[in-house]
UniProtKB/TrEMBL annotation:
Matches recorded under Pfam families: GIDA (PF01134), GIDA_C_1st (PF21680), SAM_GIDA_C (PF13932)
Function according to Swiss-Prot or TrEMBL: NAD-binding protein involved in the addition of a carboxymethylaminomethyl (cmnm) group at the wobble position (U34) of certain tRNAs, forming tRNA-cmnm(5)s(2)U34.
An example Gene Ontology molecular-function term: flavin adenine dinucleotide binding
Cofactor(s) named in the record: FAD
Main location, first listed in the record: cytoplasm
Designated name of the protein: tRNA uridine 5-carboxymethylaminomethyl modification enzyme MnmG
Coiled-coil region(s): none
GO cellular component, one term: cytosol
InterPro entries in the record: FAD/NAD-bd_sf (IPR036188), GIDA_C_N (IPR049312), MnmG (IPR004416), MnmG-rel (IPR002218), MnmG-rel_CS (IPR020595), MnmG_C (IPR026904), MnmG_C_subdom (IPR047001), MnmG_C_subdom_sf (IPR044920)
C-alpha cells in the first residue's frame, strides 16, 4: 500500500538520534514522519539511566543550544544532578544527571507529540525505496510505502542485533525488543561497508534486597545544576541519593572461574566493545593487578525499587552473575530483577558519509547515532540533530551546515568519525577537542544558538532568552570594566581579607575579577548592582579569568585556518622537523596527511606540533 501523504523527511528509529533528527527537521518546517518499532519506547534509555558527564554534557548542551530536546527532558526527569570536575577549569567541567527512566521517556514523548509538522507511526521499516541511485522512501513490515526525498536511519543497536548471556544467544534489538533483521539484510545488499560492534549492560537489582547500611552515600550538588539553557531547577522532580560499593578479590575469583563460559573470552562475540565502558570481566582481565573496582549504585527511577549497578556490565552466564553480585558488599542477599547481557549489532563505516551525515553511497540517505559506530545517548542525539537539520536544509535546497572542530563538539565528533572511522564504539571526551577552552559546555548557546536561529531550529522563547542573556553579559562586562576601586577606599578595605596584598593603585572590577583569588560574588556588589542572571555572571567571570588563554586559542585557530590547505609533501621527512615528540613523528609517518589541516586532526597531533610543522615548511621554502 502506498501511503497517500507525501513527506519531506522520514526518520527511522525513535531513540536518541531519531527523536532529535525528526524534531530538528519538523522545527525547520519540513513535513516529517518518525517511524519506530513502538511508540511506547520513544526516547528509551537502553542502558544506564543517566545523561551527560565529561565530554557528553558538552554535546547535550550543544543540542540544546540548537533547540533540541535532550537537555529539556533531562531537567524534567533528573533525580540527581552533579557538576563533574567542578574544581578544574571550565573547559572540562561537565553536568551529569541521573534520570528517572520513565519520566525521561514521557518527557521526550510529550515534546514529540507537541511538535508541529511531525507525524509518528509505529511500524518496523524493512526496506528502503530507491529511485535510481537515490533514496525515495521506505517500506514497512506491513508493506506500507512511505515516500520522502530524505530518509534518516537511526536504528541504534537493532540491525542484526544478537543478545548474549553466557553461551546462550538470541536475536534482539535490546532486551525485550525485536531486532531489525530484514532491514539489516537489505542494507548489506547495498555497497555500504558493514562491521560488528558490541556493548553490554549490568544486571539490575531490587533495592529492597540491598543492605545500604555500610555503603557510602552520594548526593547531588547544591544548588542543583540545570541541564538546559532554558531550564530551571524548579522543573526537577524529587532528588535521590546514589551509593558506592566495590568489587573484591572474591568477586574477581568468581568472574575468573566463569571466563570459560564467557561469550567475550570464548570467541562467541566477534564485535569489539567500548574501551571506556568495559564489562567487569574485561576490566578484571585488562587490569589484573587491581583487586577492587568501584560500583556506583544508581536508582532507575522514583517509582521503582530497581537499581542500576554501574560498573558491573557483564555477559557472563546467569549463575555466575548471581554469585558475583552476592559477593559485593551490600548485595549479599540482592535479588536480580534483570540479567546483564551483551549485544552485538551491525554498524556502518562512517567514512562513507559526508560531513552532513548524508551517505556518499546512497544520496538522500542520512545515518546517525549508534549505527555510525558511536556509543552513548549524547553522541547519538548530536548526530541525530545534525542529520535532521541537514536533511531539512537539503529539502529547502540549501547548503549543508557542518560545524567546524573549533566551533562545536558536534564538529569534532563528526570530523573524527568521517575522517578516521572507528574500530571500536566511539565516545566523546573533552580531550578529543583541540580547542576545548573555547568549546565549553557553559557557552554552547553563545557558540551555536544564532546559527540555530538562522536555520529555523530555535523558537521565539529560546531566542528571547538568548538575546536577554547576551545583553546582560555585555552590560555587566561594561559595568565591571567601568567601575573603579580606589586604594584606601571602603571597598578596597572590604577586599583586604581576600587578596594577598592591599590594593596600591586604582583597579576596575573587571581587573579584580581576573585575579584567581577573587570570585564574582566577592567583587560584583562592591559598587553598583550585580547582574541578576547567574548564566550571564558565569560568562563574564570565565571570559575575564581565561581571557589570555582564550585569545591564544583563537589566534591559533585563525593561523591554522589561514594555512589549513597548506600541503605536506608526500616525501616529508618528519625526523627532520625539530621539536616533534617521537609519538607525533610516528603518527605523522603512519598517516602521511596531505594537508596541515588533516595533520591537525590526527589524535595526539597537538596545535603546538602543527606550529612546528608550519615553521619547518616555511624554512624549507
Ligand atoms: P537506540 O537508542 O538504540 O534507538 C534505536 C531506535 O530505532 C529504537 O527506538 C528502535 O525501536 C528503532 N528501530 C530500530 N530498527 C528499526 C526499524 N527497522 N524500523 C523502525 N524502528 C527501528 N551506551 C553507552 O554510552 N555506554 C554503555 O555502556 C552502553 N551500554 C549499552 C548496553 C546495551 C545492552 C545497549 C542496548 C545499549 C548500550 N549503550 C551504551 C548504547 C546506548 O543505548 C546507545 O548509544 C544509544 O541508545 C544510541 O541511540 P540511537 O538513537 O542511535 O539508538
Amino acid at each position: 500500500m502506498d501511503f497517500k501523504q507525501q513527506f519531506d523527511v522520514i526518520v527511522v528509529g525513535g531513540g536518541h538520534a531519531g527523536t532529535e533528527a525528526c524534531l530538528a527537521a519538523a522545527r525547520m518546517g519540513c513535513r516529517t514522519l518518525l517511524l519506530s518499532h513502538s511508540v511506547d519506547t520513544l526516547g528509551q534509555m537502553s542502558c544506564n539511566p543517566a545523561i551527560g558527564g565529561i565530554g557528553k554534557s558538552h554535546l547535550v548542551k550543544e543540542v540544546d543550544a540548537l533547540g533540541g530536546a535532550m537537555a529539556r527532558a533531562t531537567d524534567r526527569a533528573g533525580i540527581q544532578f552533579r557538576t563533574l570536575n567542578s574544581r578544574k577549569g571550565p573547559a572540562v567541567r561537565a553536568t551529569r544527571a541521573q534520570a528517572d527512566r520513565v519520566l525521561y521517556r514521557n518527557a521526550i514523548r510529550q515534546i514529540l507529540e507537541g511538535q508541529e509538522n511531525l507525524w509518528i507511526f509505529q511500524q518496523a521499516v524493512d526496506d528502503l525505496l530507491l529511485d535510481g541511485d537515490t533514496v525515495a522512501g521506505v517500506v514497512t513490515q506491513m508493506g506500507v510505502v512511505f515516500r520522502a526525498p530524505r530518509v534518516v536511519l537511526t536504528t541504534g543497536t537493532f540491525l542484526g542485533g544478537k543478545l548474549h548471556i553466557g553461551m546462550e544467544n538470541s536475536a534482539g534489538g535490546r532486551a525485550g525488543d525485536p531486532p531489525s533483521i530484514a532491514l539489516a539484510r537489505r542494507l548489506r545488499e547495498l555497497p555500504f561497508r558493514v562491521e560488528r560492534l558490541k556493548t553490554g549492560t549490568p544486571p539490575r537489582i531490587d533495592a529492597r534486597s540491598v543492605d545500604f547500611s555500610g555503603l557510602e552515600e552520594q548526593w547531588g550538588d547544591e544548588p542543583i545544576p540545570v541541564m538546559s539553557f532554558v531550564g530551571s531547577a524548579a522543573e526537577h522532580p524529587e532528588q535521590r541519593c546514589c551509593w558506592i560499593t566495590h568489587t573484591n578479590e572474591r568477586t574477581h575469583d568468581i568472574i575468573r572461574g566463569g571466563l570459560d563460559r564467557s561469550p567475550l573470552f570464548s570467541g562467541v562475540i566477534e564485535g569489539i566493545g567500548p574501551r571506556y565502558c568495559p564489562s567487569i570481566e574485561d576490566k578484571i582481565h585488562r587490569f589484573a593487578d587491581k583487586n577492587s573496582h568501584q560500583v556506583f549504585i544508581e536508582p532507575e527511577g522514583l517509582t521503582t525499587p530497581e537499581l542500576y549497578p554501574n560498573g558491573i556490565s557483564t555477559s557472563l552466564p546467569f549463575d555466575v552473575q548471581v554469585d558475583l553480585v552476592h559477593s559485593i558488599k551490600g548485595f549479599e542477599n540482592a535479588h536480580i530483577t534483570r540479567p546483564g547481557y551483551a549485544i552485538e549489532y551491525d554498524f556502518f563505516d562512517p567514512r562513507d558519509l559526508n560531513y552532513s551525515l548524508e551517505s556518499k553511497v546512497l544520496p538522500g540517505l542520512y545515518l546517525a547515532g549508534q549505527i555510525n559506530g558511536t556509543t552513548g545517548y549524547e553522541e547519538a542525539a548530536a548526530q541525530g540533530l545534525l542529520a535532521g537539520l541537514n536533511a531539512a536544509l537539503a529539502v529547502r535546497g540549501q547548503e549543508a551546515w557542518c560545524p567546524r572542530r573549533d566551533e562545536a563538539y558536534i564538529g569534532v565528533l563528526v570530523d573524527d568519525l568521517i575522517t578516521m572511522g572507528t574500530a571500536e564504539p566511539y565516545r566523546m571526551f573533552t580531550s578529543r577537542a583541540e580547542h576545548r577552552l573555547l568549546l565549553r559546555e557553559d557557552n554552547a548557546d553563545l557558540r551555536l544558538t544564532p546559527a540555530g536561529r538562522d536555520m529555523g531550529l530555535v523558537d521565539d522563547t529560546r531566542w528571547r532568552r538568548f538575546e536577554a542573556k547576551s545583553e546582560a553579559i555585555e552590560l555587566e562586562r561594561t559595568r565591571l570594566a567601568g567601575t573603579w576601586i580606589q586604594p584606601g577606599s571602603p571597598e578596597a578595605s572590604a577586599l583586604e581579607p581576600l587578596v594577598s596584598a592591599p590594593l596600591t593603585r586604582e583597579y576596575s572590577l573587571l581587573d579584580l575579577l581576573r585575579r584567581p583569588e577573587l570570585e564574582y560574588t566577592d567583587i560584583a556588589s562592591l559598587k553598583g548592582e550585580p547582574v541578576d542572571d547567574a548564566q550571564a555572571a558565569q560568562q563574564v567571570t570565565i571570559q575575564a579569568k581565561y581571557a589570555g588563554y582564550i585569545d591564544r586559542q583563537q589566534e591559533e585557530i585563525e593561523r591554522l585556518r589561514r594555512h589549513e590547505n597548506t600541503r605536506l609533501p608526500a616525501d616529508l621527512d618528519y625526523q627532520r622537523v625539530d621539536g616533534l615528540s617521537n609519538e607525533v613523528r610516528q603518527k605523522l609517518e603512519a598517516a602521511r596527511p596531505e594537508t596541515l589541516a588533516r595533520a591537525s586532526r590526527i589524535p595526539g597531533v597537538t596545535p603546538a606540533a602543527v606550529s612546528l610543522l608550519l615553521i619547518y615548511l616555511k624554512k624549507r621554502g
